[in-house]
UniProtKB/TrEMBL annotation:
InterPro entries (alphabetical): ICR (IPR029688)
Highest taxon listed in the record's lineage: Eukaryota
The keyword Nucleotide-binding appears for this protein: no
Identification of the protein by name: ROP interactive partner 5 isoform 4
Family as reported in the entry's similarity comment: Belongs to the ICR family.
The organism of origin for this protein: Hibiscus syriacus
Annotated stretches, region: Disordered: 1-20
Keyword terms: Coiled coil
Coiled coil segments of this chain: 170-262, 294-331
Phylogenetic classification of the source organism: Eukaryota, Viridiplantae, Streptophyta, Embryophyta, Tracheophyta
Length: 405
């Protein structure tokens, strides 16, 4: 019965606590909603539409007016210069005509007066252009002013509309705020009721916990007494067993001592045999290492012999190449000598002595003036040159076919 009542009380306490947490969350949500409503109301009250910025840009008009004033200043300077030079300058009321009067002293400086007249004419054209530009700018400015007034009126209407909407929104927000305040007061009342219920439930739980602790302490005392009696009985049994175990341990220790002595004797004998085995194993390992070293030495010797054979083969190849180079040099020298002999023989064939010898056979030959050619002398010369060249080629072939020494 006590356990069931305690479980029911704990369930009631948990349900009350969960309801209290949900009420607190709802209260926080309503507070945040009220703050949002206040902020929106404040924004609606403070919201004001600023005047629409005019799109009238008067910078260009100001530039035109500055240029006009500058040119008018130049005209005044020219006027002062003309009056100082003995002439006069006048601007008509419409500004479109500039007149210049020269006095008698103007004849001294005609070039300066011409230059001044040219400048005045250019200034006149500039003034007219600036006046026309100023008129167009004024018309444009007037149009922009009218458009700006229209836009300002429309902006005022829009401001009035926004104000009316803001006032209606303000009334709606105030109504919602009142509803939220009413719901907050209801939630606060519910929360106070739940807190009182939770306080009562917690007090009941404390009382039940005290009763349960008392009953549990009594039961625990009786259980501890039973356990203590059992422990005393087990202690007596353990003491008796311990005496028996001590006697057994004494007997076992004596037997162990005897066995230890026997094991020591056997270990000494085994140590000697182990030393012999280790020495034999070391000897085998040394023999294996020696065999490996001998194999490496044989491999190195074979490699050295192979390298020596390759070196000897390379040396023999080099000697053979040197002998071939020598023979090639000798052959090239012989070919060069044969070519030189052929060249000398060809040059000797074209020499004047050969011509004198052949020319002395002619009928009308004069050693001083040369030979007077007969109709068949040219054919004879060609035949002799062909025979000479044939003999030359035969000699070159013989030299070419000679065996090399």
């Amino acid at each position: 019965m006590v356990a069931e009542s305690e479980a029911a009380q704990t369930k009631q306490a948990e349900s009350a606590h969960s309801e209290l947490q949900s009420l607190k969350e709802k209260l926080v949500e309503t507070h945040s909603l009220v703050e949002n409503m206040k902020n929106s109301l404040r924004i609606a009250r403070n919201q004001k539409l600023g005047p629409n910025q005019g799109r009238m840009k008067l910078g260009y008009n100001w530039k035109l007016q500055k240029r006009l004033l500058k040119h008018l200043g130049l005209v005044n300077k020219l006027k002062a210069a003309m009056t100082g030079a003995g002439g006069s300058i006048s601007i008509e009321p419409d500004g479109n005509c500039i007149a210049v009067d020269h006095q008698a002293g103007e004849n001294k400086k005609p070039e300066e007066s011409c230059q001044l007249e040219a400048e005045i004419s250019s200034l006149k054209s500039e003034v007219t252009r600036l006046r026309s530009a100023l008129k167009t700018a004024e018309t444009k400015c007037h149009a922009e002013e009218t458009q700006g007034t229209i836009e300002i009126k429309s902006a005022h209407g829009l401001v009035e509309q926004i104000k009316s909407e803001a006032s209606s929104r303000e009334t709606e927000l105030l109504a919602e705020l009142e509803k939220a305040n009413i719901s907050i007061t209801d939630l606060k009342a519910n929360m106070m009721d739940k807190e009182t219920e939770l306080q009562c439930i917690s007090e009941e739980n404390d009382e039940l916990r005290m009763k349960l602790e008392k009953t549990m302490s009594r039961q625990r005392e009786s259980e501890l007494e039973k356990e203590l009696n059992l422990l005393n009985e087990t202690i007596v049994d353990l003491k008796a067993n311990m005496m028996d175990k001590e006697t057994e341990l004494q007997n076992i220790s004596e037997e162990n001592e005897m066995l230890r002595l026997e094991i020591n004797k056997r270990d000494s004998d085994k140590g000697k045999t182990n030393e012999l085995d280790e020495a034999r194993a070391a000897e085998r390992e040394a023999i294996m290492k020696l065999g490996l070293a001998m194999e490496e030495a044989d491999k190195n010797n074979r490699r050295a012999a192979r390298v020596a054979e390759q070196l000897e083969a390379a040396q023999t190849a080099n000697s053979e190449m040197e002998t071939e180079l020598r023979t090639l040099k000798v052959q090239s020298n012989q070919w060069r000598k044969a070519a030189e002999a052929a060249a000398s023989m060809l040059s000797a064939g074209n020499n004047g002595k050969f011509m004198e010898r052949t020319g002395s056979l002619d009928i009308n030959y004069d050693p001083v003036k040369g030979r007077v050619g007969l109709p068949y002398t040219d054919d004879l010369d060609d035949e002799l040159l062909k025979k000479k060249h044939g003999n030359m080629l035969k000699k070159i072939g013989v030299l070419w076919k000679k065996p090399q020494k």
